[in-house]
Design brief:
24 helices; DNA polymerase, domain 1; DNA-binding; 5 domains; 18 strands; Beta Polymerase, domain 2; single chain; alpha/beta; globular
Length: 576
DNA sequence: GCCGTTTTCGGCCCGACTGTTTTCAGTCG
């Protein structure tokens, strides 16, 4: 609510062509949106000073925020709304409509909201305005239709798969020297708004042509000499930028972002009398770096910043001080500690999952089928669980160079007890516990419930801690700091679940857990063979965004050492 | 309105494309 109000203020100020203030409000809005703790909590703990201390928020905006928190209103914003009664946020959400056009539409045609604008376009009224014609009208109508169909952001899993296909197509175009996906998909954000590609090539027109003619393209939105923008059949937009080879690194960095990271880099460049743009790093008119990203960071006396960290969340300072973590590498996982089979709601047998995991290069998996309370998933009771243990032992005698660990994904009941008896859990090598019911408990009850499970000596790992489903189900209300604190105290592992809809823990939580010294497990939560790869492609990506090193991840260890770690933690919990 | 490796005043990231118009404003990334 606060971020929206600040963004709306920025737009109103921009309409009046007030210099610099719009950017200040915009930056403040971004800061608020990225906050992990509620503003109200910050205020309770440290008052106005605490809010003033947030990056991009000074005394003026902090006071406006407090006003909004206390009274539910922001007088200045309401004054702006009275002076110009239009839905600025709705109108400017339409691609191609910015604050200037919004104000012109209102002045000339009386447009107040998206519905008015749609009607005006359909009536052909917009083309009558100075500077606007029929094409603009059509573009606006198309975009309104798109907005009505959904939020417009894709899951990382889907976006990444599509990006890799297009990347491969671009690399196959004759004359292409380098081609890479940039943007938020390269930073591995959990959702992706559109795809960005950067290409270095000798024959630019040929690349542009190949791009707009890809089978994935539904509509060509723009097509210039060095760039093109298309709408893909999937509904996503894809941007292409073609640059000379000597500028490839600069362009890749530029289009990878984030915007905040880029702005910080440019500021450092300026402070040194240099200029950074998508063509390179320049001293005067002489390019001093730009062929590769490494060259640019190096020229700015910064350590290379992996794309997943480029969010202006402290990585620049760390790069300057040489304190960037050595992130866990893709391909570094040796095992997978959450795998479901046809013993519960999975599609494949234990052996099929094991063989598929081995072919991905893994050394071990834990079979963690659902347990009793999850009736819909045919959860195991103690008796079937012991039968499964027997069949896993038999399979292990058969498999070579691969180990299947016994385990379960037990349910944390509403009161924090588990749905499988401790005596049975004691027989298993890997016990994950998870919330699968009573999602709507209060924050206090849910936190207490989860911590109680974490404190159970038999629970090795808390699976998908917030139980969210991206675009489908909100995370449960949980005091994540308290959960991390409990995990640190008990040695319980927190999971990064790699299923595209989960990615749970999410990046910010991973970073907190790592800072608290909590061990992580990066799992696929695979229910079929094809999902096993998610642990590496998505789970590791999220862990990297959370600044995790290989040493933070227990399944980057060989099976024996991984199990030894779990056993140590268990002993610790017993002694409490 | 914010901020500080030029610091408490004087700056604030930069370039391409579109649509429409003959020189550029607005928008976007």
């Amino acid at each position: 609510m606060v971020a929206r109000a600040l963004r709306e203020m920025a737009l109103f100020l921009e309409m009046q062509e007030v210099p610099f203030k719009p950017r200040a409000y915009e930056k403040a809005a971004r800061t608020v949106q990225a906050l992990e703790r509620p503003l109200a909590q910050i205020e309770v703990e440290s008052g106005l000073r605490g809010i003033d201390a947030l990056p991009g928020i000074g005394k003026g905006i902090a006071e406006r925020i407090l006003e909004l928190l206390h009274t539910g209103r922001m007088a200045e914003l309401e004054r702006q709304r009275d002076a110009l009664p239009i839905d600025v946020l709705g109108l400017t959400a339409i691609e191609g409509v910015g604050p200037k056009l919004a104000v012109a539409l209102h002045r000339e045609l009386g447009v107040r909201d998206v519905r008015d604008l749609e009607r005006a376009c359909q009536n052909g009224a917009v083309r009558g305005l100075a500077h606007f014609g029929e094409k603009t009208e059509q573009k606006i109508l198309r975009r309104i239709g798109f907005l009505a169909r959904g939020s417009g952001r894709a899951l990382l899993g889907d976006a990444l798969a599509l990006a890799r296909v297009i990347e491969a197509r671009l690399r196959g175009v004759p004359g292409v020297q380098h081609a890479a996906a940039a943007g938020s998909v390269r930073r591995r954000r959990e959702t992706v708004g559109d795809l960005d590609f950067v290409v270095a090539a000798r024959d630019t027109p040929r690349v542009i042509l190949a791009f707009v003619e890809m089978p994935e393209v539904a509509h060509v939105t723009a097509r210039g000499h060095t760039k093109a923008l298309v709408r893909l059949a999937s509904g996503m937009d894809a941007d292409l930028r073609v640059v000379p080879q000597a500028s490839f690194g600069a362009a890749l960095a530029y289009f990878t972002g984030s915007v905040a990271h880029n702005v910080a880099l440019r500021r450092i460049a300026r402070q040194r009398g240099l200029k950074l743009n998508e063509y390179g790093l320049y001293r005067g008119s002489r390019r001093v770096a730009g062929r590769s990203e490494e060259e640019i960071y190096d020229a700015l006396d910064l350590a290379f910043v992996p794309a997943e960290l480029r969010e202006d969340q402290g990585e620049i300072d760390a790069a300057r001080a040489g304190r960037l973590p050595v992130l866990i590498e893709y391909g570094a996982l040796r095992g997978d500690l959450q795998v479901q089979t046809d013993w519960s709601d999975g599609a494949a047998s234990i052996e099929e999952m094991a063989r598929a995991a081995r072919s991905l290069g893994l050394e071990y998996i834990a079979i963690t089928d659902h347990t009793r309370d999850l009736r819909v998933a045919h959860g195991n009771d103690e008796k079937r669980l012991m039968q499964q243990v027997e069949s896993i032992h038999a399979l292990n005698r058969k498999l070579r160079g691969f180990r299947v660990l016994t385990g379960a994904e037990v349910n944390i009941r509403g009161d924090g007890t588990l749905d499988i008896a401790d005596a049975a859990l004691a027989q298993l090598e890997v016990v994950g516990a998870a919330v699968h019911s009573a999602f709507r408990q209060s924050r206090r009850d849910m936190t207490r419930r989860v911590i109680r499970a974490i404190e159970n000596p038999h629970v090795d790992i808390l699976f998908h801690p917030t139980a969210r489903a991206l675009g489908q189900r909100e995370p449960v209300s949980l005091d994540i700091d308290a959960v991390i604190e409990a995990a640190a105290r008990t040695g319980t592992v927190l999971e990064v679940d790699g299923i595209p809809e989960r990615l749970d823990l999410k990046d910010e939580h991973v970073r907190k857990a790592v800072n608290a010294g909590v061990a992580l497990a990066i799992d696929s939560d695979a229910h079929r063979v094809g999902q096993l790869a998610c642990a590496d492609t998505l789970g590791v990506a999220v862990a990297r965004r959370g600044w995790a090193r290989a040493s933070d991840v227990i399944n980057a260890l060989p099976a024996s050492r991984c199990l030894a770690r779990l056993k140590d933690a268990q002993t610790r919990r017993r002694r409490r």
